[in-house]
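Please decode residue identities from the backbone states below.
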């Protein structure tokens, strides 16, 4: 099961119309764009998808639409997380997860639990989940870091906890997990810009933002790195790196939506409190997209 999630996954954005409703036409276009680019799997209702701003009904509609469009062509991962353990467990116990292959569950945010609290939170999730669980550590957004010790404890004790998406940016912590993880447990990068060095250290792939825009190039970089073709991986990494840095210069998913709008894939509409990038970042992204096209890197 875990091998399904080696390589490149895409944290899909959620397109909106100008009036704020979900733009399902653009979502279908984006899905086809990423699949044609050769990505390995798709993640629905993640941070990049602005899941925190979607109503329950909108989430149900989005889930059904993505399942129908993808039609089992690639594995699907569903974001199911929160700061209320009981509510997350209830969702997992009573939800319909047909068509999905795993859940991605972010560490609780706002209430800043201790490591013991994190362990017990995920223990309850693992016990309730009908699908394999991918842990998601992103302290820059949640305000709490899940240590290597806690991640490894969970990986060793629960067979259905199959991976961690690590977005701490802490190389020492991530390498500790890689070096001591049980066989078959995946370490997945949560940061596009450091995916190459993490794979070189033994990571298994990425859940990517930039692959919304450049799926074929980024997936080719990840595959080359996993195959040990590091010269080719470095070439592609450094081609995309200025663009990746610009994507996050003024907040995410503002950056990727600005870029996708320039590429005429998804309109640049977001939901508050997320807003569009500033004019400087917008101009930089437009310039970088033009430069990549001149170098033969198409969306």
């Amino acid at each position: 099961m875990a091998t399904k999630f080696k390589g490149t996954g895409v944290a899909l954005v959620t397109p909106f119309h100008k009036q704020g409703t979900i733009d399902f036409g653009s979502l279908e276009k984006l899905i086809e764009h990423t699949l044609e680019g050769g990505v390995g799997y798709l993640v629905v209702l993640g941070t990049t998808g602005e899941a925190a701003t979607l109503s329950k009904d909108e989430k149900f509609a989005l889930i059904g639409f993505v399942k129908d469009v993808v039609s089992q062509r690639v594995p699907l991962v569903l974001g199911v997380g929160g700061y209320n353990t009981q509510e997350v467990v209830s969702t997992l116990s009573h939800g319909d997860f047909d068509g999905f292959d795993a859940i991605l569950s972010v560490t609780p945010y706002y209430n800043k639990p201790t490591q013991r609290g994190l362990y017990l939170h995920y223990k309850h999730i693992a016990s309730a989940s009908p699908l394999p669980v991918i842990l998601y550590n992103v302290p820059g957004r949640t305000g709490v870091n899940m240590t290597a010790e806690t991640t490894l404890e969970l990986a060793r004790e629960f067979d259905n906890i199959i991976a961690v998406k690590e977005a701490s940016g802490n190389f020492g912590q991530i390498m500790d997990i890689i070096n001591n993880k049980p066989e078959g447990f995946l370490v997945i990068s949560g940061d596009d810009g450091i995916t190459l060095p993490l794979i070189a250290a033994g990571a298994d792939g990425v859940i990517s933002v930039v692959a919304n825009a450049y799926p074929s190039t980024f997936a080719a970089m990840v595959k080359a790195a996993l195959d040990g073709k590091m010269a080719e991986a470095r070439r592609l990494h450094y081609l995309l790196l200025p663009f990746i840095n610009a994507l996050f210069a003024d907040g995410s998913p503002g950056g990727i939506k600005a870029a996708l709008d320039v590429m005429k894939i998804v309109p640049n509409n977001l939901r508050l409190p997320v807003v569009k990038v500033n004019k400087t970042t917008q101009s930089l992204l437009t310039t970088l997209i033009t430069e990549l096209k001149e170098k033969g890197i198409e969306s």
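Observation: The chain has a mean pLDDT of 97.
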